[in-house]
Structures are given as structure tokens and as C-alpha cells.
Amino acid sequence: xxxxxxxxxxxxxxxxxxxxxxxxxxxxxxxxxxxxxxxxxxxxxxxxxxxxxxxxxxxxxxxxxxxxxxxxxxxxxxxxxxxxxxxx
Length: 88
Hints:
By secondary structure, this protein is mainly beta. It is built from 1 helix and 6 strands. It has a single domain (3-87), classed as Thrombin, subunit H. 8% of the residues lie in helices and 47% in strands. The chain has a 6-stranded antiparallel barrel with strand order 1-2-3-6-5-4.
């Protein structure tokens, strides 16, 4: 299991979110990590590229009743994880 997969699977670190592309269409459950946002960022989520090959601005994640809209997303240097900057 890769490092990101281990973190996402850890019940104390990762959590299940519902992902919806462009806010419409079928939802998909996947594991994400909430990470500390940089100054000026509202919320940041990390998701495995293997579970979610594409993330685009306007997609959304639902966590604990809150909906987070993706503003931007980029892959890490290894191409294994997304860092998605979201707005509440």
C-alpha cells in the first residue's frame, strides 16, 4: 500500500467524502484527508489519483453535511495525490 493510500485508510486521519463532478451527476464515495490550508485558502483536501483520476474546478465534495466546491486542483510531484483547494 502506498503512503497516500495508508494515510487515507487510517480511520484517525482520512474520512469518507462524497465527490460529485461539476455538482451534477452521480456521487462517488472516496477517502480524503483534510489538510491545513495555506493563508488565503478556505479548505484543502487530499485525494488519491488512483481513486479519482480527474478533478476540475466546480466539482464538489460533501463531508459531514458541508459542501466544498473545488476552486483548483493539482497533483503532487509523484502524481499519486491531488491537492484540491476548495471553498465552503
